[in-house]
Automatic annotation (TrEMBL):
It comes from Deinococcus ruber. This is Transporter. Gene3D superfamilies: Outer membrane efflux proteins (OEP). One of its GO terms (molecular function) is efflux transmembrane transporter activity.
Amino acid sequence: MTVVILGWATSAQSTEAQSVPTKPSPLLTTPPLVNPAPFTLSDALAGLSTSAQYRQAQLALSTAHAQLQAAQANLGPTAGVNGSVSLASGSSTATNGTVSSSTDLSISAGASVSLPVLPWSAAQTAARAYAVARATFAQTSAALTASTELAFAP
């Protein structure tokens, strides 16, 4: 008799376990799919300034511009002033026993002005490098724009 009651109790427990409703786990549910806005040509063109090629050309242009400004700043003459003071003293004894002493004071002053022999050389080189960097930047920008527009062509 005890076995039958245990068998009945076991089946009653399994019946109760089957009738309990289960909730879905919040981790297993997926949010509804949202249709994102389409990526347009204007979006792609706006993002060109973040591309590696564009940034590299832009940095080369700014470097060349800084070098041109440095070369132009060194075009002018330089001037300098210098000076020195020295004091020397000494004494000597002659064979007859007389002692003589002497003091020498020396003062010198000077000024210098220098002008580079070919002052335009470095500036011209920097100006040429800046012109090349500007042209390279324009070509890179145009090529990136053209390839982007080609990718969106119908």
